[in-house]
Amino acid sequence: MELDAVSIEQRDSADPLAHLQQLFSIPDGVIYLDGNSLGALPKNVSSVLTNAVEEQWGKSLIKGWNCHNWIDLPSRVGNRIAKLVGAEEGTLICADSTSLNVFKVLATAMKLRPGRKVILSDTGNFPTDLYMAQGLKELTGGDIELRLVAPEEVETALDETVAVMMLTEVDYRTGRKHDMKVLTEKAHSVGALAMWDLCHSAGAFPVHLKDANVDFAVGCSYKYLNGGPGAPAFVYVAPKHQATSGNPLTGWMGHDAPFAFDLGYTPSAKTDQMRVGTPQVLAMTALNASLDVFDHTNLEALQAKSIELSELFISEVKRRCPNLELASPTDPMKRGSQVSFRHEQGYAVMQALIDRGVIGDFRAPNIIRFGFAPLYLSFADVFKAAEILEEIIAGDLWDKPEYHQKSKVT
């Protein structure tokens, strides 16, 4: 059924989450469909960060570690993220980058499965995860095999040679979503451990780490958690592994008593063992403030709106741009909070969109991606974005020299 502006306005009027948009700072004239790369700025972050700089750091100086409890930011922020990914309190720590956390977890998992040499992943996994596995292989003298299969072949590829299954729940290109519970159960049935990357999951829809019996998880906080560019990542360790896992990067903050300054390393028996160096206080303070927006809703409501937004976008783009190929699953329960299309000149198409105020992104070789963050998107935004995309495709407006000039970041 063809929709019009009036019916779209009615959907926005009836949207129970519409009030959340006022919590974010979005530039006038911009339709932001790239929250799956970098979340928008929550309005409260600026004042919180200013206070942290001018009052806490500026006036408290070194005393801030105690009087403002900077030292416990990793666990305090971690516990807030834990609620968003279905993890128990005390099992998730905010620290370092996703890549570093991948390395920590892989090395730990291999240690917990002596005699097994295989890290199983899929060809849709985000490259940094694969790079870290390759680095671990080289560091161990090639004594590890990184086995890659097609995403749909993961379940059948799990066997008794696999030490750890390393998967990203939502494919960064297409948005295809793995079944976490099913694949974790299969991994355990053959004696393998299950590690999940939640970079495109956390804050987008409900995740159930405890219920799925996941062993380890990692993720970033600058996408759907809106923590800001370069915001610290997180790492989850299931309770059953906390006493025996250990962290190969034995920095002082993972020590059981870091301020005893022992010359020998004794790991914390808690998730703190996954800490390495000094917490990024300012970045973590900004992230902590950004998480406040989730106090105003729940992930089930966000997922429901995400599905409505993405289904509207798909139907409108299919109607208006029939030559664009949908790269994402048609079943909304089998994709994350993003929709991707293929176009041979996808980079130029996206530059033309950005030039007209519709910000998405491009992934090689031919994917144009659109993220749907229900916290700050309206149905009118999505409808208008489809209109602008139609104008660009129908008029070949993407075919300008400046739209073909690739920047460092695509």
Automatic annotation (TrEMBL):
One of its GO terms (molecular function) is pyridoxal phosphate binding. Pfam families: KYNU_C (PF22580). GO terms for cellular component: cytoplasm. The keyword Hydrolase applies. It catalyses: 3-hydroxy-L-kynurenine + H2O = 3-hydroxyanthranilate + L-alanine + H(+); L-kynurenine + H2O = anthranilate + L-alanine + H(+). Gene3D superfamilies: Aspartate Aminotransferase, domain 1 (3.90.1150.10), Type I PLP-dependent aspartate aminotransferase-like (Major domain) (3.40.640.10). The modification N6-(pyridoxal phosphate)lysine is found at residue 223. Belongs to the kynureninase family. NCBIfam families: kynureninase. This is Kynureninase.
